Amino acid sequence: MIKKFRRRLIAMTTGFVTVILIVAFLAIFLTTYLRVQSDNFEKLNQAEELKITGGKVHFDDSEEEALQIDRIVPGGGVYFNMLVDKAGRPIMIDSAIKLSKKDYNKAAKIAWKNQEGGVTRFGNRDWQYVVAPAIASLNYDEEDKNIGEEDETYLIRFLDVTDSKKSLKNLAMTLLIVGIGLLIFFYLVIIYFANRAMKPLEEAWHTQKQFIANASHELKTPLSIISTNVGVLYSSKEDTIEEQIKWLDNISRGTKRMTGLINKLLTIAKTDNMFEPLNFTKVRVDRLLEEALNNYQEKFDSKQVIVKQELFNITAKTDEVLLIQLFEIFIDNACKYTNDGGTFEVKMEESGRKCIIRFKNTGAGIAGEDLPKVFERFYRTNEVRQKYEGSYGLGLSIAQNIVEQLNGKISLTSKVNEETEFVLHLILKRE
């Protein structure tokens, strides 16, 4: 499921980036294309006034004559004009470039055939042209070769667009290469950040699966005890309750264990709900801790544990319910794991805005390899599994969750067969 979600996330993000790149590069290309077309259109349709002083040019091996004028108009680009009669025959050529008679005639025929304009190629160049009616009055031959304003004439202008087409082609190729490069780059970046973003989700998914497996295993044990002992009761219906009391005791212990585990699971569900707002009220932190210690005093006395307190007055705004629950978890742990005749110390310290609370008890301690795992759900050392029936491995996980909600942190140190110390660093809103 996680892999499928990762692939979908990468595919969707890559698709989104691809669309953005395509739209951006298309916008760049279209903007450039329209600008070039606009410039070409402006050059093709610019108005000119030409004063002709006369002269004749004969094409090689031809009886036709056409007046040719060699001139350069700054800013007009590379172009030439042709004045043709109503049959499309060239009358005058206004050009600053050298083309053969064949190319001029070919240009005239192509333009005359398609008078709506377009692009053609000759002389190894691309030419865009327009055809428009013209008013001309020429007297370039004394032997009755006159063109008057009443004669039907047309002006054909050819503009060299080879370089502009090449620049657009180069731009398209550049955008394509850059786009592919950027797409590959963004794809790798997306994979990197998708993997980083998915890592907490994978860990949460793995933790949830492990949690369900562990919870199922923990629930299976008391249910198996209850089911087995109920089966024994059914097989000996003639016996009295007194004779079957040990089976009932087993059922009762299994029921209590399952009830305790379910209560712990409900606590986890509640503390995991980060959307539920905390209820901050004005409380005496030292009094809450003192009351929690008093509730366990009888259990400490039964094990002859010496309890040492070093508390001082702190009034702060915090969630009273969560704080009591947090204190009880550490005190209950100390009550379970402090050795008979040992000591349990509770000490409060003040450091700026922080309230530091230390819970230190003597006992078997925790091995170094187990220290990083004690806050994991359902984690218990082999010794705890064997010696402490009422331990579920959930208390410290709940405590860590509570401390995180209260914007604090927990540290742990322990020495095997000596002592264990939990240190709470809580940031409190002082009154």
Summarize model confidence as the mean pLDDT. Answer: 80
Low-confidence stretches: 51-64
Percent of residues in beta strands? 15-25%
Task: Please tell me the CATH architecture of the largest domain by its name.
Answer: 2-Layer Sandwich
SSE-based structural type: alpha+beta
CATH superfamily of the largest domain: Histidine kinase-like ATPase, C-terminal domain
- Global outline: elongated
Count of separate structural domains = 3
CATH fold assignment of the largest domain: Heat Shock Protein 90
User: Helical residue percent?
Assistant: 40-55%
Provide the succession of SSEs. Answer: HEEEEHEEEEEHHEHHEEHEEHHEEE
CATH class of the largest domain: Alpha Beta
Given the structure, what is the number of helices?
9
N-to-C terminal Cα separation, in Å? 49 Å
What is the makeup of the main sheet? 7 strands, mixed
Write down how many β-strands occur, each being a DSSP E stretch of 2 or more residues. Answer: 17
For the biggest β-sheet, the strand order reads 1-2-4-3-9-6-5
Question: Compute the gyration radius: what is it?
Answer: 47 Å
Structure description:
By secondary structure, the protein is α+β, with helices and mostly antiparallel strands. It folds into three domains: 2-43 and 168-196; 53-160, Beta-Lactamase (2-Layer Sandwich), CATH 3.30.450; 273-430, Heat Shock Protein 90 (2-Layer Sandwich), CATH 3.30.565.10. The chain is built from nine helices and 17 strands. The strands form four sheets. It has a seven-stranded mixed sheet with strand order 1-2-4-3-9-6-5, with helices on both faces. The chain has a five-stranded mixed sheet with strand order 11-13-14-16-15. Helix 7 (320-337) packs antiparallel against helix 9 (395-405). The chain starts with a helix and ends with a strand.
